[in-house]
Write a structure and sequence with these properties.
326 residues, alpha/beta, Rossmann fold, 3-stranded mixed sheet, 16% strand
Length: 326
């Protein structure tokens, strides 16, 4: 059907899915959001007449093909719990099988810097060796390899877009979420240190327009590309700016690697962060010149504006919570 969605977002309920959906809607493109829970999808996308809501169970191949039926392009955003990273290549293989069965022509994997391991150069270009020394990095590498190897087979073209750490309004799965929440509440921000090393963060609302553009750029497929942030900044600088905007003095509680190990004895999530701690001491800073050569200049929100928008969203959330409790 002419008015049917041709692009589907698998694992759409997260921050990246919302960003991409917003960009697709802004250009008038119909899209399909695919996730495990219909109510969660309705809460995020039910207001948009361009959105089609479909559920799937990645563990059941028939539901993958059914969710992909009629799509030309799939964008893969599926996350797994941090302590279950072994699922990444397994789910990717099942999804690839389902996409082939449905006749999908293109796949975009939104990837991470994990497959690189420790950076040998700064910035890191797409040609940098992929030699992860962590379990999570090896699982992400296996996932990427499945996608890269699938290109050119069974009518499928693939693209991997790697992102650095991200932040943005309402983005809870971010190292920086506690900073904005703490500044908004006037409470102590829980952070993972060191917080004085220059780091790179991509503003999540900037991701959607890039993915939308790549989805209709045929020459992008068969490649791996980077999307970098707006330069580097330290976590401390972000915290100081956020608290200053909130007209409060910074209150920071910083946990280093040793503290993470101790806290991890009772908190499984923090325990899982220990092996990836190198990214805070030896950050991977991406070179995205290949991307800009391909699609032209990319709009990147400044840290100043991104911090202000993220804090404003946190303040709205606090006001909403207070009103709900009243």
């Amino acid at each position: 059907m002419e008015n049917a969605a041709q692009i589907g977002l698998f694992g759409a309920a997260g921050a990246a899915g919302r960003s991409i959906a917003h960009a697709l809607g802004a250009t008038g493109r119909r899209y399909r959001v695919i996730g495990r829970g219909r109510e969660t999808l309705k809460a995020s996308f039910g207001h948009d007449p361009l959105a089609e809501i479909v559920t799937w169970n990645p563990d059941e191949p028939a539901t993958i093909a059914s969710a992909a039926a009629g799509l030309q392009t799939a964008v893969y955003l599926v996350g797994v719990p941090y302590h279950q990273f072994g699922k990444h290549p397994v789910l990717m293989q099942k999804t690839l099988d389902g996409l082939r069965a449905a006749g999908v022509r293109r796949l975009i994997l939104i990837g991470t810097v994990y497959p690189y391991g420790r950076p040998r150069t700064l910035p890191v270009a797409e040609s940098h060796p992929r030699e992860p020394h962590t379990f999570k990095g090896k699982m992400r590498l296996a996932q990427e390899n499945l996608v890269i190897d699938a290109h050119g087979h069974d009518g499928l073209e693939t693209l991997v877009l790697r992102l650095p750490d991200f932040y943005g309004p309402g983005v809870e799965r971010s190292f920086l979420h506690g900073v904005f929440e703490g500044a908004a509440r006037g409470a102590r921000a829980q952070m993972i240190g060191p917080i004085d090393v220059p780091h790179e963060f991509v503003f999540m609302p900037d991701v959607g327009p890039v993915v939308e553009r790549l989805s209709r750029t045929p020459e992008a497929f068969g490649r791996v590309l980077h999307l970098a942030g707006a330069g580097t900044i330290t976590q401390r600088e972000i915290a100081e700016r956020a608290y200053a905007l909130a007209q409060r003095a910074p209150k920071l509680m910083v946990a280093g690697k040793t503290m993470l190990r101790v806290m991890g004895l009772v908190n499984p999530m923090l325990r899982e962060l220990v092996e990836m701690h190198y990214l805070l001491t030896e950050p991977v800073v991406l070179d995205d010149s290949a991307l800009t050569r391909l699609i032209g200049p990319v709009v990147k929100t400044s840290y100043e504006s991104g911090i202000a928008q993220s804090l404003a969203a946190a303040q709205r959330a606090v006001r909403h919570a207070v009103a709900q409790a009243a």
